[in-house]
Amino acid sequence: MSYNKFAWGLGACAALFLCAWYFLGDDANTSTISETKKPEQNQNAAITPLHNEMALEDNSNSTPPIDLNNILSSPEVSDQIETAIKSYTEISKYPANSQPILSDTHVNSFINASTPESSLPYPFDDLETPIQLSIKIDKYNYFFGDTVNASVSVSDIPDNATVSGRSVLISVDGKLLAESGVEFEKDENTIKTMKVEFDTTAYDTQEWPLEINVGAYIDVNGNQMFISAPFRINTETATLESVGYSEPKSENLVIPVNLDVTLAGYYFIAAILYSSESNLPLIYLEAEGPLSNGKGTLNLNAHIQALKKGGDEGPYLLKNIRIERWSDEIIPMDVAGKVNQESFTVEGFQFDAFDDTPYIDPLNAERIKLMEGLGSL
After folding, report:
1. Predicted TM-score (pTM) above 0.90
2. Which residue from 77, 106, 180, 285 puts its CA 20 to 30 A from 130's CA?
3. Within a domain: residue 372?
4. What is the dihedral of CA 261, 296, 115, 211, to 10 degrees?
5. Which tens digits make up the pLDDT trace of 253-271?
């Protein structure tokens, strides 16, 4: 999902959050409310007064009508609304496609740069301490022709335990796609690790789905365990070919991202602009648009106000690049594009090379008014 969609929907989400906060807080209330609405939803059930009387009798023990004013005026909800207003006031100073990064951890709120992993404890009656089983894949998006790499570790195992295992690739519905034996590395006595590798060129992958799990069956002294982690193996639709020379245009630093497109469609690009000197994240950037087969370009625009917020005139590094071809009738799921390089150098310019134009969100006043209106109820 693009960050632009989040920013545009923040005002409406505040209202939806309040409703969800109330209704999901009490399952019993939710059940009763849905029952009392049934006579109103069925027009034939409310034709005569007799039906209305029966409805009233059936709901004599139901929850009293909801007083939305009391909910919205509670200190807890008022604080939530005030926080939402402050957050929106800050992010609305910048375009949704050019948002400043406040910290390293803030990066994951825009682009999840973590790798798939899972860890589970396995208690057994004959063991005082549960065995800890973990798996980690080196990345989430693979392509046909790649080698899927993962590592599995087994810890807190008994001294001198006999440990064996096998690795598998399975579909989300449990179908076995590939299988391989494993060899544990020489580790500490209570910890065993193994490397998992599946070279996709060695298998018939024509029937493989987009979403797959890599898993491991582990046996420790007859105690059997299983763990898995998800990944995607994508049909190649577009490959990042290069990042062109950036240049200041009006209030934006324009960064061309050049793609080699093998399947035309609507594409989305997101990336983080880093300082090349400090290696700190500065700005989240995104762009989207239709691309035809062949060479295509989408421009990332770093707004001057976001650049000034970071306080760095460059040069920069473009990292954490994500490409997606959005779903359509040809492929009914979003598919990742291929990025073969971790970072690209981006030229920087002095801030006075740009038009120092403040960003004005055309719907800012309307959204603030909506959230303030909720808080005043």
Report:
1. no
2. 180
3. no
4. -30
5. 999 999 999 999 999 999 9
